[in-house]
Design goal:
Layout: E1 2-10, E2 13-19, H1 22-25, H2 28-41, E3 47-52, E4 58-61, H3 64-70, E5 81-84
Parallel strand pairs: 2-3
Antiparallel strand pairs: 1-2, 1-5, 3-4
Length: about 80
């Protein structure tokens, strides 16, 4: 399985971002499962989910402080990486 994501350390907090399809954010069970699995894959760090709308505008789900931080970070500044498990 492959997925896009990033691990970021900012302001003393290390967190992960997992790219998901928009439908995942709209389903509480899928959203919670994806977040739990991603946190494990990223070594237990807090993880937020990110989906984009049809115009490429990101929407985040997860810990409020991280979501608020990421809302002000351009996607081009995120060190995206493809992960394989």
């Amino acid at each position: 399985m492959r997925f896009q994501g990033a691990v970021i350390e900012e302001q003393g907090i290390t967190f992960g971002i997992l790219v998901v399809k928009r439908q995942v954010l709209n389903s509480a069970s899928q959203r919670d499962e994806a977040q739990t699995q991603a946190s494990r894959l990223f070594g237990g760090v807090p993880t937020v989910l990110m989906a984009q709308d049809h115009q490429g505008v990101p929407e985040y789900y997860g810990r409020r402080d991280i979501v608020n931080f990421m809302a002000n970070v351009p996607l081009s500044a995120v060190p995206w990486k493809e992960y394989t498990i």
